[in-house]
Structure prediction request, 325 residues.
Amino acid sequence: MPLLSSYKNIISWVIKIAVGLLSFYFIYDRLQSEFTAEKLIVIQSSLSSLGAYILLFCCLIFVPINWGIESYKWQMITAPVEQVSYGTASKSVYAGLCVGNLAPGRATEFLAKILFFTPQHRTTITLLHFANGMFQLAITILFGAMAVIVFYQDKLDTSNTKTFLTGLFCIVLLSVFTFFITRFHYIQKWIVKKFERSLGHNAEPYTFTKNIIFKLFAFSVIRYVVFTFQFVLLIKIFYSDAITSQLVAGICIYFLLTTILPMISFIEAAIRSAIALFVFSGSNVPEMALVITAILLWVLNVVLPSIVGYIIIVKEKFEFSLFKK
Prediction:
């Protein structure tokens, strides 16, 4: 038994070290390629005033608020399956952020999040991870669709093919979300039967109540407002003109595109920068300001929390198993 325990500890540390090396290699590679000498000069010159540092500090304050809201949502959505403390839910979210760096579209994020729950619940918890993301996605689509109307109100043409396809795509995504949430217990039952019946496990059916749905939507809206405000704060560091409704609408479209387009992990920051240039191409905001803002938003909301997440992963003792033995 001591030998088995020692073997498990070795495997655990090998996994933790591999996760850390890969995650931070991808982050370092992106930072090195994105923060060119020209961009660093612009950042240095823009941060020459007290007001710029205040804006950056305010944006930094919103990072734990942003992920704190997400942690509360995660605790709330998983409570009917397994009740965990807010602290445990926060650890789960931050650890997931770190592991999410390993794959396109942060597809590996759930692998770390489920480790904070007992093995017999991890199948349902995995499904809830994707369900939780769909609530945030639905809000992003709704605000993004409204922003398209505001941003392109002078050019909007109901017969325009691009407008029609954009609207159709949003409707399809929202329809998929609605189907997934309203039929969640059937999907859960089918997947549990596929993967757990042979192991003799049963899972309590999970149904989204009206109260949970309302709260998840409400906190998703609050979180959306938070990271929209972060973008505004950052762009003000490099752009002195007034923030207009067109600019805010452009930010909402930026979030829509960066959410629905798959991000290839090692060039994620570059893709975000390209999308920012595409969305704001007709605005007065300097291109360099847009690129730097997109990169800094990623650094603040992903890179820094990923460091916290890895510290949590190193300190925690996990049972690396999807199912109870």
Residues 2-315 form one domain. The chain has one domain: 2-315. The mean pLDDT is 82. The chain has twelve helices and no strands.
